Amino acid sequence: MNTVNYISFPGLGIGEMEINKIAFSIGDINIRWYGIIVTLAIICGFAFACVRARKIGINFDSMLDYAIFTILAGIIGARLYYVAFSGDTYSSFTDVIAVWNGGLAIYGGLIGGLLAIICVSAVKKVKLAKILDVAAPCVMLAQAIGRWANFVNAEAYGYNPDKIALYQDNIFRMDIRAADSDFVRHTLPTFLFESVWNIIGLLVLLFVIEKIKKYDGQSVLFYITWYGFGRTWIEMLRSDSLYISDIRVSSLLGFLCFLTGVILMIIFGMKAKRARLDSVEYESIYTSKPTEENTEAKDGNEE
Is residue 159 part of a domain? Predict the structure, then answer.
């Protein structure tokens, strides 16, 4: 199996880079960059989550409980989602669980992770909206880092940009050539598009949304909306999408997330505004302070 690819970005003046999927070996065991990068993404996301959780009174031990179950459920969900929709035939259980060869679907990971967070929150009696708000930017950070695992595996790329009017100048063109072949595949670096999209969303979330935050759950709803919109159009550029019939699964799910997020943000925003208005204490337009006229009349009566 070929583990070396040559990747270049001609439109940016970046020539061929030799990218080996294997970082190093220990005996007969190959440690792949894919696993290292995904692990790094998880560690960074967890560390950031611990910092944010401390601000709402959730300690490190509780976050470890969340991490154990969420990471496990996320990896299982990501792999099962990919296996279910990839259309590939898996001849053995080893093939099904071979995540080191790639094949983790982010939406499956999000679904699995969400189910784990719901269960752990129920046991610990932590308000779900609060912990999801803690997690939202951490997931965006992890996704931005994790997408680079697709780069080293030379996967998650897009169509030939020559065939797409938007990219006729080939500024974003990425060329991929396997070490054992002379064939050069002209593609779009959709992994990079998604990574950058998540970084921008993370900055907007931290420095805009959370500065004007009006209710619990607003951060996670922004994440769902932002990522859903981005994934919808990025997925349409990909040449390796997962399908149901002729429908791109992740593109459809992205649009549904975007639509759901927008609707819920409007609904909860209106509820939060109404609650603020109801809590305002209005001063009476009438004053109990006696007027000068009434004071004089009262004094006269006393005489």
Answer: yes
Number of separate domains in the chain: 1
d(CA 82, CA 3) in angstroms, rounded, equals: 21
Task: Indicate the pLDDT class of residue 27, thresholds 50, 70 and 90.
Answer: very high
Whether residue 77 lies inside any domain: the answer is yes
pLDDT tens-digit profile of 85-114?
876 667 777 777 777 666 788 889 999 999
In a domain, 246, yes or no: no
Are residues 137 and 55 in contact, defined by beta-carbon separation less than 8 angstroms? no
Q: How far apart are CA 75 and CA 37, in angstroms?
A: 14
Give kind and range of the element (H or E) at residue 179. none
264 domain residue, yes or no: no
Q: Is the pLDDT of residue 249 over 80?
A: yes
Domain that holds residue 135: 4-215
- Long-range contacts of range 8-11, CB-CB < 8 Å, 24 or more positions apart? 8/174, 8/175, 9/172, 9/173, 9/174, 9/175, 9/189, 10/170, 10/173, 10/175, 11/169, 11/170, 11/171, 11/172, 11/173
* C-alpha dist (Å) from residue 280 to 274, 277, 283, 296: 10, 5, 10, 36
Please, are residues 180 and 2 in contact by the beta-carbon 8 Å criterion? yes
pLDDT band per the 50, 70, 90 thresholds, residue 203:
very high
Round to whole Å and give the CA distance between 303 and 285: 32
The pLDDT value given to residue 303: 46
As a whole number, mean pLDDT of residues 57-82 equals 93
Residue 5: beta bridge partners?
Answer: 19, 178
Burial zone of 225 (CB within 10 Å; 0-12 exposed, 13-18 middle, 19+ buried): buried
